[in-house]
Amino acid sequence: MTVEQPILLNPIGIVKTGKENPREVPVSGRQLAEVEIFPPYRQGLLRIEANSHLWLLLWFHKADRHVLSTVPHRMNPNLPEYGVFGLRAPNRPNPIGLTLVELDSVEEGVLRVIGLDAIKGTPVLDIKPYFEHDIVFSPTTPHISAVDYRVRWSMFLKQALVHHQEPCTDLYLGVRMAITAEQIMGHLNTPELKVSVIGTLCLADTLQGLSRARLASPARFTFQENRDLSCSVWENHQYRLSLTANKGFSAEELESLADSQLFVINISSVSNKKGGTGNA
Question: Running DSSP on this structure, what letter comes out for residue 154?
Fold first, then answer.
């Protein structure tokens, strides 16, 4: 095969629900969607319900196929330009989309999935199960953070739920701590950022999942169980950030209230052991 020879792909299904304008599709979220698999391919769904998560390969049929570099505008229009092969942007020479979804149910060739980021009518090229060995716990990636707080909340919450698997109050607390820490300390998944947690197992599990901080190689994460205190400390070569949670907030309040209402915040300089405290 040469580069001039085309590759013929026949869609196996289609996205049946969702927005019709690509700009209206949430960057992240847990919206429920339906994917219809065409009758000739339904035998391929045999025992697919044994999987909790699936990779969907999609064809972004409304994409601009002439784009080779772009700015991730929906995340942050102030970021520099990246080549499309280093982004998940839909506009690219071969607009194949890869999205991880949670399988809710299967009935008569229709998959009900959670977290699909595609418009109604998007062709489905293939389905693959998410296997345990697919995970890279702490990969190296560029820091592309959303400007919009609601988008950041949605993305962190989705990641936390995938990791912790339970929407408990301390999961929401962990999400808010991570968002606040990222705003002050920058990229959370970096080798030089160390994370210490005092609190419940749920809080520690959530923050470890969001920061991707390992116990070794490098040692970035420590935990002390305490049911009466919820605190996280984030430290790099320059700063030390301490977030101590005030008690009694609901999940909705943890999403919406100001940092200064939720936490006692202390920021100090590591380099000269001086510095004050502040409220974000």
Answer: H
Question: How many Å apart are CA 169 and CA 152, to the nearest integer?
Answer: 18
Strand partners for 143: none
pLDDT (tens digit per residue) in 229-268: 999 999 999 999 999 999 999 999 999 999 999 999 999 9
DSSP of 43-106:
GGGTTGGG-SEEEEEEE-TTS-TT--EE--TTT-TTSPPEEGGGS--S-SSS-EEEEEEEEEEE
Assigned fold of 149-269 = 60s Ribosomal Protein L30; Chain: A; (3.30.1330)
Which part of the chain has CATH 3.30.1330.130? 149-269
User: 110-114 and 69-70: which strand pairing?
Assistant: unpaired
Whose CA is closest to 49, among 108, 119, 116? 108
Query: How far apart are the C-alpha atoms of 9 and 218, rounded to whole Å?
Result: 44
Model-level pTM? 0.85
Both structure tokens of 46: 């045999």
